[in-house]
């Protein structure tokens, strides 16, 4: 059976709850005080039943931040705030991730490309090449050289 989750469509709650199949219906927990989807939505709440994989993907997407340019001072401050995770570099670029996760395996990522500095929030598993690819796409989209 596919793992399922209740996803909140409310802007006040960015997240999901694991769903449990009990007595022929999906519930918030496996105990008798759990709620079904209909019960969750009975008071105007906005929940939907989705696969756990979809809920995880939606949560990640909702917590990403796009590439944005920052100052060299901000880049240096973030490099020195905690030991950097996966600090990588090449002759024209470098990137690192904060050790402290924003949520799950999503973290703030900092990059230097040419003489410019950037930050984004994404999966901690991104490689240096993927990070710089996102930075280059940002630079290409704005039409200004690095």
Quick synopsis:
The chain is an alpha+beta fold and 146 residues long. The protein has 4 helices and 9 strands; from the N terminus they run βββαβαβαββββα.
Topology:
Elements: E1 4-8, E2 16-22, E3 25-27, H1 37-41, E4 47-51, H2 52-63, E5 65-70, H3 72-81, E6 85-90, E7 93-97, E8 106-113, E9 116-123, H4 128-142
Antiparallel strand pairs: 1-2, 1-4, 2-3, 5-9, 6-7, 7-8, 8-9
Which key phrases capture this entry?
about 150 residues; alpha+beta; 2 domains; 4 helices; elongated
Structural summary, described in words:
20% of the residues are buried. 29% of the residues lie in helices and 36% in strands. The protein is an alpha+beta fold and 146 residues long. The chain has two domains: 4-61, no CATH class; 64-142. It has four helices and nine strands, in the order E-E-E-H-E-H-E-H-E-E-E-E-H. It has a five-stranded antiparallel beta sheet with strand order 5-9-8-7-6. It has a four-stranded antiparallel beta sheet with strand order 3-2-1-4. The protein is elongated. It has helices at residues 37-41, 52-63, 72-81, 128-142; strands spanning 4-8, 16-22, 25-27, 47-51, 65-70, 85-90, 93-97, 106-113, 116-123.
